[in-house]
Amino acid sequence: MISTKINPPRAKQIAKTLSIHGNERIDNYFWMNERDHPDVLAYLEAENEYYKTQTEHTSSFQEKLFQEMKSRIKEDDASVPYKKNGYWYYVRFEKGGDYPIYCRKLGELDADEEVLFNCNEMAKGNSYFHLTGINVSPNNNLVAYGVDTVSRRKYTLYVKDLVTGEVYPSQIESTTGGSIWANDNKTLYYTRKDEKTLRSNQIFKHELGTSPNYDALVYQEDDETFNTYIYKTKSQAYLVIGSSSTLSDEYRILNADTPNDSFKLFAPRKRGVEYGLAHFGDHFYLLTNKDEAYNFKLMRTPITQTGYDYWEEVIAHREEVLLEDVDIFKDYLVVTERFQGLNKLRVMRWDEQEDFYVPLKGETYTANTGANPDFDTPVLRYSYSSLTSPAAVFDFNMQAKTTTLMKEQAVLDKSFNKDNYIEERIWAIADDETKIPISLVYKKGLKRDGSAPLLQYAYGSYGHTTDPYFSSNRLSLLNRGFVYAIAHVRGGEYMGRNWYENGKLLHKMNTFTDFISVSKHLIANKYTSEKHLYAYGGSAGGMLMGGVANMAPKLYHGIIAAVPFVDVLTTMLDDSIPLTTGEYDEWGNPNKKEYYDYMKNYSPYDNVKEQDYPHMLITTGYHDSQVQYWEPAKWVAKLRTHKRNATKLFLNTNMDTGHGGASGRFESLKELAEDYAFLLDLEGINQ
């Protein structure tokens, strides 16, 4: 752990008084939100130089970790093909290629390959590249797609002729990257973003061969707490415009054969009523929390009568089972359920002759239905992974009840054997006596004497559930003696919808205290100790890291916070910042005193205090559209003036990327190698 002794950067302080509800906050680093200002750039560059200098002694180890993780990946790999509209579609990678190649074959898998996009070629000359929203026309001759070369999640939409290879000259700026074709093969619908807030707020209709300047505005979402989007039903019969907030949904529908007609309101929005919409036969199917069905239920309504009064129940609400998704087939309905934290795939025949579950094993796994574009098939494609089992794709014949392994993730490491690792699920007790699940994995032979290093991860917001999954990269920690733990804290939906409700708004503090309770439980049961416990979280999970660093700094030897949302109050009071208004139902609206006071109690930036802090690595992207770069920058600057001990504190800003980090599959491994080297260096492990 040798590093050059130089003084860390000290940001200038310019006091700015922020007043609301009769309360004043002094923000000495508010000036950092002036993007591209020379002083801001100078500070970020100084922090980057400091980080680079102080970690220079690990540079060769970082390279070793990078090569080690890269060597486990099958570079010339391909996805399992799926069939849609007469073509087999798949994605493949070439050796040495950082980006995917999107391909298809007509009719049979031994047909000639047609390359839709070689992203390695398209990415040349760009420090960042992401292609999204591949949307093939019904006649298979055209494809629309979005490209982002800044990492700001503002995509330029293009259309390519798959017969000639020509890319149409018309380019549509500031979109989400997604689009939908009407069934006439010439009308394209897409979603545009507000230039300032980046909120998805407009649906446009584009006629192929015309200038985007003449595109018709089909729908505008004026409620700043909602985002809008458009998709086509699996039946290909309907175009659907959706508007969604955290707590409510609303849809408009149009027959995909008649794009010149007007969209019809499906059912007016009601605060607190969420639903998703699918079509099959003479009915629309609705996964909804209507009538206080907090764990959701399945309903349906005739295609000619879509108002709330016509909705009828298909699967009733259950207290202990969360309905997460449905896949509709000609003869079967497949329901993704969550019971006691675990995914279940339930298969039901429409004629009610059978109702059973796809066989799944274990307590630390994740299972999801995959690409199932065809109605008229008895085969369900699903994926399965666990903390010790590499990701696998299966085809399950719902009629014969047979399972076929289509592909398992290759781990190119001769020493890897999944039987050499132990996965388990244990439970901690929270401050209010709630049992908090923990998924664990470690190598066999681990001594439970508190000496093992342990990396504890959580997210805990937006109802997002972090299911246990396999990571070949994680082997670089496990093989060096680390335990890896996922804390399924409240704020996610691991234990059902109430798990989410009890970790948001005026219950948000449960997310922090749950994480701390998990840490204490792991220490008490000698999986690790305070000297060897590390915490990691990103985005809203980075806010969690900031919270626990303030609340329980002595529990952790080190913390990594990636693109952390830490300046909660200031951001949520600024409705010009991307995504702010749509977040009110998650965090609360601090323009209301009750929420302001509560958020002020946990907002990491506002609660930095003069105390000892763990070793900390904070990462961000300069072009981040989700969490602006200045939040982690301000946080680090404030920590530098308040922390009393000599622990490491680093800010690493990638000046070329945004919220998701580097775009290439190998470039992102370099960032992970930096994170791992930081942890391993703190443990005195350098090989």
Task: Please describe what this structure looks like.
- With 687 residues, this protein is α+β, with helices and mostly antiparallel strands.
- Strand 19 (283-288) and strand 20 form a beta hairpin.
- Helix 2 packs across helix 12 and helix 6 (509-524) crosses helix 7.
- It is globular, with a radius of gyration of 25 Å.
- The two termini are 12 Å apart.
- The mean pLDDT is 95.
Largest sheet, order of strands side by side?
A: 30-31-33-32-34-35-36-37
Q: What fraction, in percent, of the residue positions are helical? A: 10-25%
Question: How many extended strands?
Answer: 37
What number is the mean pLDDT? 95
Structural class: alpha+beta
- Major sheet details: 8 strands, mixed
- Roughly how many Å is the radius of gyration? 25 Å
Strand content: 25-35%
SS field, number of helical segments = 12
User: For the terminal residues, how far apart are their CA atoms?
Assistant: 12 Å
Low-confidence stretches: none
